[in-house]
């Protein structure tokens, strides 16, 4: 009889330990999802800042008319893009920035205009932050997806109804002339 109680006690301790382990794993997954949400908000703010600064530079009159139109339209499209088209629109803004600011002479022409120094520095800083914000977000997504792949998470449905996080893939290579200025 005492042996039966000891087996029951061991089984209860094992079940409690397993329950605590599952609870800890669910908490960890929840923290990873919160981190993913926070880094996505940071990425969105960084992309919005880059598009806003690009629009500001395009409308400031320091660029030639053709470059202004190309940059303004790409920045406007990036700001107005729906979630499904966001990666493409942001990539097109990166390409427009490289086309407009591909040559150091263009950056120097912007810097020579009144108020151009601040505009060029602000744009260089905004362009420099985008790859970092995207990397942080994609790292958070990678960690959450790795934990969601574990059997215990799938079998016990520890992810609940949280949507599966998706990586944000875009062309975020900065223009060389602005990247040199940012460094």
From TrEMBL:
It comes from the Bacteria. The chain crosses the membrane at residues 6-24. InterPro entries: LemA-like_dom_sf. Residues 72-99 form a coiled coil. Keywords: Coiled coil, Membrane, Transmembrane, Transmembrane helix. This is Membrane protein. It comes from Streptomyces tremellae.
């Amino acid at each position: 009889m005492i042996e039966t109680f000891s087996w029951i006690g061991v089984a209860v301790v094992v079940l409690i330990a397993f329950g605590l382990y599952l609870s800890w794993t669910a908490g960890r997954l929840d923290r990873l999802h919160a981190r993913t949400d926070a880094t996505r908000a940071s990425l969105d703010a960084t992309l919005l800042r880059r598009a806003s600064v690009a629009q500001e530079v395009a409308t400031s009159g320091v660029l030639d008319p053709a470059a202004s139109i190309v940059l303004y339209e790409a920045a406007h499209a990036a700001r107005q893009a729906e979630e499904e088209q966001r990666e493409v629109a942001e990539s097109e803004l990166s390409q427009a920035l490289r086309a407009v600011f591909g040559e150091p002479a263009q950056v120097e022409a912007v810097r020579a205009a009144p108020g151009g120094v601040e505009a060029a520095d602000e744009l260089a800083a905004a362009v420099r932050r985008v790859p970092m914000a995207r990397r942080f977000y994609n790292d958070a997504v990678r960690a959450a997806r790795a934990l969601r792949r574990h059997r215990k998470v799938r079998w016990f449905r520890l992810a609940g109804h949280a949507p599966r996080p998706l990586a944000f893939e875009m062309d975020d290579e900065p223009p060389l002339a602005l990247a040199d200025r940012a460094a």
